[in-house]
Design brief:
Tetracycline Repressor, domain 2; Arc Repressor Mutant, subunit A
């Protein structure tokens, strides 16, 4: 029984992954359930056995990425300093983007296709993630390890930049995800992570 349940879970993930690929390549609106069934190599009735509608597939793609982001942000809280927690979130966000390029393309292009109730759920997940990242950034400002700029500007700019990293990452052999994260931290993070000489700046000036 356990093996059967595991196999069913694996098939669901296979269908979701293929749906992300097709939606990203051909567009959510133009991709049919027939195309998805053919790509996975199963009947359309089996697709509907796992997913009652195409909009449910779209919602679950959002849910999968956003819940993974929340789990990653929670795991980053194990670090002692806020700066390391914030750094862990940035690196984790980069990994989520680069390991889920198709799903993230769909999240950016087809969110307005969700029904109202599912859109509310997705908004709540996005807000929870945003609040977690902002809270960690504010903790870093309070401890004097992150530069005190408005949190919406700092967090928004960094996450937006992360979300587009797949555009310039070389195809084929090239930078690993960890190497991309290292380069990104060099390019962007050094503007936020302060050395001891910079820590005379007063965080209260922005309150």
């Amino acid at each position: 029984m356990a093996g059967r349940v595991a196999d069913q879970g694996g098939r669901r993930e296979e269908i979701l992954t293929e749906a992300a690929r097709l939606f990203a390549a051909h567009g959510y609106e133009t991709t049919s359930m027939n195309q998805l069934a053919a790509a996975v190599g199963v009947s359309k009735s089996l697709i509907y056995h796992y997913f009652p509608s195409k909009t449910e597939l779209l919602y679950l793609l959002h849910h999968r990425v956003l819940t993974a982001g929340l789990a990653m942000a929670k795991a980053a809280q194990q670090h002692e300093s806020a700066a390391e927690r914030f750094r862990g979130i940035i690196r984790g966000h980069i990994r989520l983007v680069l390991e889920n390029v198709d799903a993230n393309l769909v999240l950016q292009s087809a969110r307005d296709r969700l029904p109202e109730d599912r859109d509310r759920e997705v908004r709540r997940l996005r807000e929870r993630y945003w609040e977690e990242v902002c809270r960690t950034y504010e903790d870093g400002v309070a401890e004097g390890s992150l530069r005190p700029v408005p949190k919406d500007l700092a967090v928004g700019a960094i996450l937006a930049a992360c979300n587009w990293l797949y555009r310039w990452r070389p195809e084929g052999p090239g930078l690993s995800i960890d190497e991309v994260a290292d380069e990104f931290e060099t390019l962007v993070g050094k503007g936020l992570f302060l050395g001891s000489a910079d820590r005379e700046c007063d965080p209260a000036r922005l309150t």
